[in-house]
Amino acid sequence: MFVPSLTVDRLGSMCGSVLSSGIQSPALRRVLVYGMLYNLCIEYSGFYTSTPRTGHYSQLAAYFIGELEHALLNVPLALPANQETVEALLVGVSMLSHRQIYEPDIHLIGIVRD
User: Is residue 112 in a domain?
Assistant: First the structure.
C-alpha cells in the first residue's frame, strides 16, 4: 500500500502514539497504523522466504490485521473531513479486500461485501 503523503517520520510518530496509548488512540489513526504495519509485515515475509523471520512476520501480520479489523469496527459514523481520514479509509478498505481474497473464512460484523 502506497500513501504518498505518509512519510517514514510521520508513520513513525503515528506508530509511537498508537502503540504507546493503544485503544485510547482515535480509531482512524489505529486503522492507518495497523494497516501499514500489516502491509510491511506481508512484504517482509515475502523477502525472507526460508528463514525463521518469515514465521515471525506472518505472526505479526496476523496480529496487525486483527487490530485493524477491531479499529475499523470502532470507526465513528461521523468522520472529520481531513487527509488522515481519507488515508485511513483507503488503507483499511484495501487491507480488508486483500484479506478477503486470501483468507475468505474471515467475516466481520457490520461489514457487508457484495
Answer: no
